[in-house]
Amino acid sequence: MIGTLMTVFLSALLTVSAGPVLNGAEARAVIDALRGNPAAQMAEGPDGGVATGERTGTDKTFTGMEPLPEVRYTALDPDNAKGLSTEMIAHSYGVASQGRVHSISFESQKYFDEKGFNAVTYDDKSEGKLLYLTFDCGYENGNTGKILDTLKEKEVPAAFFCTQHEAQTEPELIARMINEGHIVGNHSVHHPNFAKIDAEKMAGELEGFDNYMRRNFGYCSAFFRYPEGAYSDYALSEVTGHGFKVCFWSLAYADWDENNQKGADYAFETVTARLHPGAIILLHSVSGDNAAALGRIIDEARAQGYEFRALTQLP
Prior knowledge:
Layout: H1 2-14, E1 22-23, H2 24-33, E2 41-42, E3 50-52, E4 71-72, E5 89-90, H3 103-115, E6 119-120, E7 130-137, H4 144-154, E8 159-162, H5 164-169, H6 171-179, E9 183-186, H7 199-217, E10 219-221, E11 223-224, E12 230-231, H8 233-241, E13 245-247, H9 264-273, E14 279-284, H10 288-303, E15 307-309
Helix pairs in contact: 1-2, 4-10, 9-10
């Protein structure tokens, strides 16, 4: 099966951008099969991670990489025959302190693991003081470029969970993220509450963003973050069933209101006080405080013995 998919995939890369339409399971099988293939580059990661088209310098995409074939996602259990809960859960993480994860994040990760959901709140399986830096990007107000400058200077990998609006309106920034080795995660097309939409609409939100990135950037990733952090067991089953790893967070603060910023020192002190091993850090790219404090945050984390890793390195 994978050999057949690979043949179809390579044919699409070498001909036209409007390649075959694959379903979600086939698309993720292709991502897995790309490992070591000379016609595409594959980031390391047990869950498929990131795939890109061949870097030919093409003007078909903003990255110069060949477009990837499009995918098709449909509802996996449209009638919820499994009887999973549809009650909305607003992701909660607690305020970590003294280098320890908060019990709320601990219990969330335990729940995901026990239920078999491919979802992560923090890395509780790796040894050592590891951090995963992520940003949510819904629109641009001049700070993302500064954040990218700092990440490049400090040689830190990050993941940017972007809406389609961000990808459409800021293609140069998205291309820079990709070309500088960062992950661009799926944050949906319209930023809906996934606990309030049906499975077909969930599939459409996943598909729309995924295909936009495939067509215009020659790129796809297997990482998803729920808008507003709102989900249900049913929504988890539908999204992870398409092969996505759902990425929540265990460290964040109220940084999203650009009209209520409290200064770089506040951002620095708040984030560094909440560091803990395995933390997935959520920051918003619209925050001027984050852009101003990021370099100091990275330096302090490293001074405390932490290492920054990419989501593709999650166990």
